[in-house]
Amino acid sequence: MYLIICSILLLLVIRGSYCDLFDVLNSGSDFDLNSIINAAFNGSDNGSVLIGEVTTPIEEEVTFWCSSESSDNLQQVHVNDPNIHNKIHFAKPITLITHGWLGNHSSFWMVQTASDILKYTNNSVCIVAWDHLASYVYPQVAQQHAPLVSDYMTRFVKFLNQQGMPPESMTLVGHSIGAHVCGQVGYNLKGKIREIYGLDPAGPLFTHPTRRESSFRLDSTDAGYVQMIVTTRFILGVNYGDGHENFYPNGGTSPQKSYKLHSFQNIWQLSAFFEERHCLGCNMLHSRRGDVDKNNLTLKVDTMNVSVIKGHCRR
User: Fold this and answer.
1) pLDDT digit string, tens, across residues 178-189
2) What architecture is domain 2-264?
3) Class of residue 12 by CB neighbours under 10 A (exposed 0-12, middle 13-18, buried 19+)
């Protein structure tokens, strides 16, 4: 399961398609948070960012869209939903996916990841939507809205637990500020979540200019296994990953290479090369922590040759 989830997310990074911010930034520019955020605003599909007080009830601002036992089509599920067992397959583990700042629940990477998890794993899926709250200015989202979202998401996870789904069977995936939302949920649940994957966890106001306490940011204490994939280091992303394992495609800096890959199917051939949980890497990925047995293999993924490292991770 670790390999499958990791493969889906790493291929999204290689494609460079789950985040529109990748190609907006120039890694050679000076670190100027204001200009970076302005560039990100201009690159957003959400239009002008918002500012001001939010008065809408949290139940309307944060929604959950989940697959069921009878259908992979996502339908809305509520906290304390009386029909919860008809809407979620409780016999399976579940993956909850959430977007980040300026994101939305219908973006390509979220829909594609949910689809591939349903297709290639035994997990159910829930997409966590907080589109409106994510559309405000960055400091407001990072400092005010993220805790609101994580608190309500924690309520949802606790509700699932009360209905018979333990947090040890849950995987959380979050991008940007959404990665820290997942971390906050894990912190609220005292690290009982099975695993969390942070896709380019946001750096500003989380790890720089000052490092916030662990209750506000994703780190290795938030789940049994935490992995970070860092692609905009020193700018919008964290400077260094703080998971059990951390990956830095192309050194982790922006802009990322834009590979045109069109299929997820061939990535599953990797499963034949791994046992239990393994480090997954290629010639452009670097792990800050963990040694691997360096038995190199070459895998053809559509038109791109990927050199894959085979071997069990050692802490």
Assistant:
1) 999 999 999 999
2) 3-Layer(aba) Sandwich (3.40)
3) buried
